[in-house]
């Protein structure tokens, strides 16, 4: 063993003598630099930013928040709601005056249908007014299930689900399917509830011009080109198109047959 | 020295406690540490605040993890069998034409749903076909393929004691003054409104309702919305935005979390009901400002709930209000469960602690739980409500509350306040608090681990092990008692629980029946984990219990 060690030592010493000068000088400089760094004082920049308790208390006292809500002028139109007294049917009594009703969403005139009211009263006498619980905890009534079955049959789909608030339906449905990293193509004139759903889903959003199928086609072709560049990412990105049947903002109908024809079953349409 | 005097004069609200109550003298640099707010919390509370969250026994925790481990292994085995078509697959699949689409659900995301939730799915979404009052009728359903699909047999299980619905004051009824008033209004106004609040949807009933709610809460003005969840998710974005800070409790409800996210503000979370954690966050926020730019925050909003429905704990409101006043933050209080259920007059957690409603900047609540209706409200100063009327998403875009629902709220609120001339409201409030105390006391005596405050009508009973979740729900239904069991992801993974909601409509006999059944099931499933010392009501009971636990 000793001879082995001796042999290695001889090798080392020989290497030392045979090394070129610049190499030794470089190594020497590096070793001196390391020693200097090890023994120099630590970088003290953060200490100058550490605040004393006194300064913290001063900052806390000085800070003034904004008003919780900015003041609204007394003449803002939203503060004067129209008061409706009486049922909102074809004629409606607004602020004491009787008017013809062109403002409520009552397309089929069912708001004051006697049959609907009778059934509603029957159900009120059987179930009371509220459900006192979410769907999961004894808030599912047999009438909910019946409604869902009928809706599914009416819309010719396999199943249906109902929500208690119209606004929340779209705002909850979009984030349920589309997550961060997915792609959504949506019409510019989409309603507010869809916009909130898109915001909550955190996906990539691309807008196409209102009811303009060529614009949509252009966007889709661009997307295909992107996909071919990066096929691995394309395999996990889901893509959706969101359109409304009848737009509340512009009162048009979306061209569904064309849309289905040219997307050709390659996209999921919401 | 002079420095402490000048700093104490700059304080607001006469918090002169700095130098006197502490009894401490100024230290070397003339500064006294301000910790007096939390050294004497007893000064702020008028009654004892008793909350307990007993720790999980170690053996139980180990067994629970083992249980989940075994279930996961079996889950992988079943997935493997399904993949190779040895076992029939019931999972929803895309249509054939869409086979080459990116799948809607990644296989792994649904692992928990497919393999664990499906096994005990029959405990949830149970359909009922009567009023969700103290007793209800369940629709019987059977499954022939291990909970993948259900069939209704056509039979009805009658008179099941309902410990699951949020019916704290018993207003879920189909007879009586509330139902009669709602029927009248339906005949007069119809079923729906068909328009938004700022267009043609503002009925005179809505005006009456809002004025009544403002009087009930003791605030200047209030506004009502059609859905409780949406109240939070649509109004928090109107109040805060970029450059604001939201401090929210760890265990806040999904609606508050969604509202905070949609607003675009920075969100920081403090430990559940922990005032030291909240104070530390407040101090750090004000001192250091916004992240990276260090500009001062525009507003700080503290978001808390009155009663937390999964824990049964009550927020430490006096301390939160003291903190908020000292640090000039705003307070958003979500009283979804506590309105109507706490307090000598039923006016919620502010009433329970005897505080001034004007101290809470934004009081939010729902009408679903104690009032037997649906919808939510926000109450506060007139400027706040005026601003919300013009800027809230719900007021501008969403349909307003249907007339019968609004009338139900009006009638039930008048009953609670006593304005209908009877003592029905006061009786119900007293009955609720008696029922709560009795139920909790008996359950603790039996040896179960119960979380939460002694006064909260929400009673979580710890189950821990995954198999016991399903077993408890099913055994209770066999004994004709409907309960709610909760597991992951609504609770932390090892802390699954059964949650009882005590109601004023429950009579002493119903509670006794329920307690007997719970005790029986507890013995059967070995749920009596508590290691606390029991009080000494009857020696016989106690010695038996201590033998069992040893």
Automatic annotation (TrEMBL), chain A:
Reaction catalysed by this enzyme: octadecanoyl-CoA + L-serine + H(+) = 3-oxoeicosasphinganine + CO2 + CoA; L-serine + hexadecanoyl-CoA + H(+) = 3-oxosphinganine + CO2 + CoA; dodecanoyl-CoA + L-serine + H(+) = 3-oxotetradecasphinganine + CO2 + CoA; tetradecanoyl-CoA + L-serine + H(+) = 3-oxohexadecasphinganine + CO2 + CoA
Necessary cofactors: pyridoxal 5'-phosphate
Any single Pfam family the record assigns to this protein: Aminotran_1_2
Coiled-coil portions: none
This protein's pathway: Lipid metabolism; sphingolipid metabolism; Sphingolipid metabolism
Matching SUPFAM superfamilies: PLP-dependent transferases
Any one GO biological process: sphingosine biosynthetic process
Entry similarity comment: Belongs to the class-II pyridoxal-phosphate-dependent aminotransferase family.
Ranges annotated as spanning the membrane: 20-39
Protein name (record): Serine palmitoyltransferase 1
Keyword vocabulary terms for this entry: Acyltransferase, Lipid metabolism, Membrane, Pyridoxal phosphate, Sphingolipid metabolism, Transferase, Transmembrane, Transmembrane helix
The Aminotransferase class I/classII large domain, residue ranges: 98-262
Enzyme class, first EC level, given as a word: transferase
InterPro entries: Aminotransferase_I/II_large, AON_synthase_class-II, PyrdxlP-dep_Trfase, PyrdxlP-dep_Trfase_major, PyrdxlP-dep_Trfase_small
Statement: the UniProt record of this protein carries the keyword Membrane: yes
EC number: 2.3.1.50
Role: Component of the serine palmitoyltransferase multisubunit enzyme (SPT) that catalyzes the initial and rate-limiting step in sphingolipid biosynthesis by condensing L-serine and activated acyl-CoA (most commonly palmitoyl-CoA) to form long-chain bases. The SPT complex is also composed of SPTLC2 or SPTLC3 and SPTSSA or SPTSSB. Within this complex, the heterodimer with SPTLC2 or SPTLC3 forms the catalytic core. The composition of the serine palmitoyltransferase (SPT) complex determines the substrate preference.
GO molecular function: pyridoxal phosphate binding; serine C-palmitoyltransferase activity
GO CC terms of this entry: endoplasmic reticulum; membrane
Automatic annotation (TrEMBL), chain B:
Keyword set includes Transmembrane helix: yes
CDD domains referenced in this protein's UniProt entry, alphabetically: KBL_like
Keywords: Acyltransferase, Endoplasmic reticulum, Lipid metabolism, Membrane, Pyridoxal phosphate, Sphingolipid metabolism, Transferase, Transmembrane, Transmembrane helix
GO cellular component: endoplasmic reticulum membrane; serine palmitoyltransferase complex
Entry cofactors: pyridoxal 5'-phosphate
GO biological process: ceramide biosynthetic process; sphingosine biosynthetic process
Gene Ontology MF annotations: pyridoxal phosphate binding; serine C-palmitoyltransferase activity
Subcellular location: Endoplasmic reticulum membrane
InterPro entries per UniProt: Aminotrans_II_pyridoxalP_BS (IPR001917), Aminotransferase_I/II_large (IPR004839), AON_synthase_class-II (IPR050087), PyrdxlP-dep_Trfase (IPR015424), PyrdxlP-dep_Trfase_major (IPR015421), PyrdxlP-dep_Trfase_small (IPR015422)
Pathway: Sphingolipid metabolism; Lipid metabolism; sphingolipid metabolism
Entry EC number(s): 2.3.1.50
Protein name listed in UniProt: serine C-palmitoyltransferase
Taxonomic lineage from the root: Eukaryota, Metazoa, Chordata, Craniata, Vertebrata
